[in-house]
Design goal:
two-stranded parallel ribbon
Amino acid sequence: DKVPEIQRNYQMWRDNLYALYFLNTYLRKIGKLSEYRQNPLMVIESDLNALIDSLQTKYSAKIEINTDRFDQIKLSRIDMMALQRNVPFPILVPNFPVLTTDHRLDYGRKMQTD
């Protein structure tokens, strides 16, 4: 379907599933899947941070970030999950996959939004 809302929803879920697939595949490859399930933060800091940093460096020229829009986002420390009742697929938005503890935008370039 070409409806923008449907496309956005599809892309959001697709990206989430790709990230989870990549994460599980990589953790299986390095033999840390069960360790990750027991202590994800430790594995993120010992293995995933360096991997994500290397990917950010490798693809930095291809990454565009809308920093103006990004700066407008108001974050809180409250975890939230949106659900719909009495529908076949009740989760509106997938959980954000945590792949790194690095919070700096030291890669990519500013998106031009004329």
